[in-house]
Write a structure and sequence with these properties.
5-stranded antiparallel β-sheet, about 475 residues, Helix Hairpins, alpha+beta, 7 strands, about 5% strand, two-stranded antiparallel ribbon
């Protein structure tokens, strides 16, 4: 079929998808399972599985959207139905459309995170997407999956054995990537930055970290593409393909190449001609062809080139996107994309500054900066969350904070933090019944959420603490 998971773990595949902003489908098959992840420009947009515990009905039951009776009635509902399970549940009033959306996103994340634990099976990647239902397409960023997935990474010993002797080389961290890192991650990364050129196996001793903790951090930084492992072997002279890669890179840097020009095709090229050229370029320019010991600068250039090749194929292979491209022209589309990128970067810069201000309890300044962030990039849940947290500490803005937490839930319904934040907000306002409801919702998503458990116990009192909290324990 394709590559073996034990030799090429799935997180490494996800890293390439993220770095090169790839669109396509990844299928993983094993003795008793088959999973598929689908990507659009480097983000997860859909997933499928045949694992019972990862199917939609199981997921909805696990997160409390349907009860046990409804769960056992599912097979009766779908018997003879042509509609997808989610729509059948909505039509029969088992769940709302909003709960279905929440459950589908939660399911996609469960499937994606489960791939970190795989040590068997084979995988293959297709550069084209199948036809996906519009109401089930999502945009789930891979850095967030990396942060949650690394603690489950079963191939960590393989990762360690491959890279222990290599030299660490850190890279600059963009504001966007920095927003996914916890404070402890930032501290470790700063310590590693002062040790570039040190063998990876020595870093644990020098930093005073447990070996497993360090290698989890190294795996995370590697997946986020802010850390490389450099081989100590003497570099070889570039091959003909590498020379062609460098020449194409220089052409791209010297001037913006039209997508047709990049593929050396005219604008009347057929889909088959475009696809054939893409496959030829993939064989010739894919970063994997450089080998593991390639120098980091060359690999960066290869990533840049192949990301542009993928973007060209994504546009020219889609009838609608190609028509828009032909009408607007390359320069107009590039101008729009660059403007958007600048606004996103500006929003991230404000966000980073606001996090520092929030830690200093300068809440009004935090709120002001976060409003600017949202004006520049209005679709980032983490921005609304920080804005709401700052406003929660300003009594006359707590009503506005509630709206911002609801916006976070709308954007990331799988995230327990806005529910916990709403619980705190209503607890401050002495509205304990509403606070209890939101703490329960946070715990339905994350049964180990410490703040939600603590605050719910305070509301319920000592007599009820144990019996009520037990319902949130993970099922064995």
């Amino acid at each position: 079929m394709g590559k073996r998971v034990i030799e090429s773990p799935i997180p490494f595949v996800l890293r390439k998808v993220f770095m090169e902003k790839i669109t396509g489908g990844l299928t993983i098959k094993g003795e008793n399972f088959e999973k598929s992840l689908f990507f659009s420009q480097g983000d997860i947009c859909f997933a499928r599985t045949n694992i019972l515990q990862e199917r939609l009905g199981e997921v909805l039951f696990k997160i409390g959207k349907i009860d046990k009776t409804q769960f056992w009635d599912i097979h009766k509902l779908i018997s003879g139905q042509k509609e997808r399970l989610g729509q059948v549940l909505v039509l029969n009033n088992f769940i709302s459309q909003k709960d279905l959306f929440y459950g589908l996103i939660y399911q996609v994340r469960v499937i994606a995170l489960s791939t970190f634990a795989l040590t068997s099976g084979e995988w293959e990647f297709s550069p084209t997407l199948p036809e996906l239902p519009e109401d089930s397409k999502f945009k789930i960023e891979l850095p967030g999956i990396f942060v949650e997935g690394v603690p489950r990474f079963k191939s960590l010993p393989l990762f360690r054995s491959n890279f222990a002797k290599r030299l660490l080389q850190t890279k600059p961290v963009s504001a966007e990537i920095g927003s996914f890192l916890k404070d402890e991650d930032v501290d470790v990364y700063k310590a590693l930055s002062s040790r570039s050129g040190v063998p990876a196996e020595r870093a644990a001793e020098e930093l005073g970290l447990a070996d497993e903790v360090l290698w989890q951090k190294l795996a995370l930084f590697f997946l986020l593409n802010i850390l490389e492992f450099v081989a100590t072997s003497v570099p070889r002279a570039p091959s003909q393909d590498q020379e062609a890669l460098l020449a194409l890179y220089e052409s791209m840097k010297a001037r913006d190449l039209d997508y047709y020009e990049l593929f050396d095709l005219n604008n009347s090229a057929t889909f088959n001609q475009i696809k054939e050229t893409y496959y030829q370029y993939a064989k010739k320019y894919h970063p994997d062809r450089l080998g593991e010991a390639s120098n980091p600068e060359l690999r960066e250039k290869a990533n840049f080139v192949f990301a542009r090749i993928n973007k060209a194929f994504e546009v020219l292979s889609d009838e609608g996107k190609r028509r828009e491209y032909d009408m607007k022209g390359y320069k107009e589309i590039q101008k729009t994309e660059k403007t958007t990128e600048n606004l996103v970067e500006k929003a991230n810069l404000y966000y980073r500054k606001a996090k520092t201000l929030y830690s200093q309890q300068r809440f009004r300044e935090t709120a002001s900066l976060m409003e600017e962030s949202i004006r520049n990039d209005p679709n980032k849940a983490s921005y609304y969350l920080l804005l709401g947290l700052a406003q929660s500490n300003i009594p006359n803005l707590r009503r506005v904070a509630e709206k911002n937490f609801q916006k976070v839930i709308e954007l990331e319904p799988w995230n327990p933090e806005p529910y916990a934040a709403l619980g705190l907000l209503f607890q401050y306002e002495k509205m304990e019944r509403r606070a209890e409801n939101f703490f329960r919702k946070a715990l339905a998503i994350d049964p180990e959420h410490e703040l939600a458990k603590k605050r719910l116990a305070e509301i319920l009192g000592p007599g009820k603490k144990q019996s009520v909290l037990s319902m949130f324990q993970k099922k064995k």
